[in-house]
């Protein structure tokens, strides 16, 4: 079956075959991660989505839900460089990006690169550090480069920032400004495991032997898979569906959602539309499909949009969440 996209003709059958072949490593990766991560299918899937869509991810959840373990395991399963930064109120931008150090022997300043120069960077409790440090990291995330002294240094590909945030303790935290949160492609909210899963977790932790994660995927494979993700076919109707969802957050009255007008202070930016499209393609890739269907968009919509819809004081007073607003929009917008 062939479809016309713009000025080019896309062979869906051939594309399906290619993606089915090139996405085989996702199953291998899932099996390897399953050695240490019990359950948390949603979290693992979102980590893979961010990695394949070349976007950064923010994980929010109470302590002890294996957020750090999942990120560490993912980095170990891929032959790539991993670094962890524990964000604290006394952290300085130089602790993150690096600095110039004087070398007495050679009588000159040399660059000492910081932990941000890695393929996978775990920013643990990102809201614990002051704004200067947060913006230093976010600059590296956006520009994929860091300036130290007079020189600018490129960060190697793949580069993925996985930040965690603790939602319950607000003492000594510096909330991330909306413009900075917007740099994260996905914001995933992690919940408690099921009873049966927790029973398995207890058993696994009672065993004396530590499970060893082996590198099963190369960094080059991830870079190649990202290019293939962009090739996933997206019909014009799906593009319009994405635009309708984003525009409904800006002008809800145009979609017969007048009651949301007083609840939304600002809607999604064009970055939301771009990220919805790329994340939907990555989701189709994970499901080993060469084309995007409306269910792909709906599946990742909350993760892409929940941190991009601003609520008014009125919404907060009524305890209305951004998820409820997005849910209303998804129910109202016509599915192609």
What would your notes on this structure say?
This protein is α/β, with parallel strands linked by helices and 336 residues long. It has a domain of 138 residues: Helicase, Ruva Protein, domain 3, CATH 1.10.8. Helix content is 45%, strand content 18%. It has 14 helices and 15 strands. The strands form six sheets. A five-stranded parallel β-sheet has the order 5-8-11-3-12. Strands 1-2 form a two-stranded antiparallel ribbon. A two-stranded parallel ribbon has the order 4-13. A hairpin with a 2-residue loop joins β1 and β2. α3 packs across α11. The longest helix is centred in the C-terminal third of the chain and has 17 residues. The chain is globular, with a radius of gyration of 21 Å. The model has no long low-confidence stretch (mean pLDDT 85).
What share of residues are in beta strands?
Answer: 15-25%
SS-based class = alpha/beta
* Helix content percent band: 40-55%
Overall strand count: 15
For the record, the CATH architecture of the domain at 1-33 and 232-336 stands as Orthogonal Bundle
CATH class assignment of the domain at 1-33 and 232-336:
Mainly Alpha
Oligomer: single chain
Could you give the order of strands across the largest sheet?
Answer: 5-8-11-3-12
Mean pLDDT, to the nearest integer, reads 85
CATH superfamily of the domain at 1-33 and 232-336: Magnesium chelatase subunit I, C-Terminal domain
Report, as a whole number of angstroms, the end-to-end distance: 20 Å
Classify the fold: give the CATH topology of the domain at 1-33 and 232-336.
Helicase, Ruva Protein, domain 3
- Residue ranges: pLDDT <50 for 5 or more in a row? none
- Shape descriptor reads globular
Radius of gyration: 21 Å
């Amino acid at each position: 079956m062939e479809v016309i996209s713009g000025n080019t003709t896309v062979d869906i059958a051939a594309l399906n075959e290619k993606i089915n072949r090139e996405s085989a490593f996702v199953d291998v990766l899932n099996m390897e991660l399953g050695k240490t991560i019990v359950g948390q299918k949603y979290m693992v899937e979102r980590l893979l989505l961010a990695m394949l869509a070349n976007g950064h991810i923010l994980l929010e959840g109470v302590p002890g839900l294996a957020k750090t373990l999942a990120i560490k395991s993912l980095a170990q399963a891929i032959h790539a460089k991993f670094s962890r930064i524990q964000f604290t109120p006394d952290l300085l931008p130089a602790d993150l990006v690096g600095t110039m150090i004087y070398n007495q022997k050679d009588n000159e300043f040399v660059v000492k690169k910081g932990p941000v120069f890695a393929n996978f960077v775990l920013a643990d409790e990102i809201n614990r550090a002051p704004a200067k440090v947060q913006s230093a990291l976010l600059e590296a995330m956006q520009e994929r480069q860091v300036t130290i002294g007079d020189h600018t240094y490129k960060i190697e590909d793949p580069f993925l920032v996985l930040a965690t945030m603790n939602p319950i303790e607000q003492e000594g935290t510096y909330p991330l400004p909306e413009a900075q949160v917007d740099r994260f492609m996905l914001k995933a909210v992690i919940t408690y495991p099921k009873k049966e899963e927790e029973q398995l977790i207890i058993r696994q932790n009672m065993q004396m032997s530590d499970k060893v994660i082996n590198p099963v995927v190369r960094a080059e494979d991830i870079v190649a898979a990202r290019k293939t993700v962009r090739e996933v076919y997206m019909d014009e109707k799906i593009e319009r569906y994405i635009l309708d969802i984003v525009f409904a957050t800006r002008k809800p009255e145009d979609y017969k959602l007048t009651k949301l007008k007083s609840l939304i202070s600002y809607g999604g930016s064009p970055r939301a539309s771009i990220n919805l499209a790329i994340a939907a393609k990555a989701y189709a890739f994970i499901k080993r499909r060469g084309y995007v269907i409306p269910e792909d968009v709906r599946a990742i919509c909350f993760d892409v949009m929940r941190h991009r819809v601003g609520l008014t004081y009125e919404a907060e007073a009524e305890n209305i969440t951004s998820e409820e607003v997005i849910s209303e929009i998804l129910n109202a917008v016509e599915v192609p």
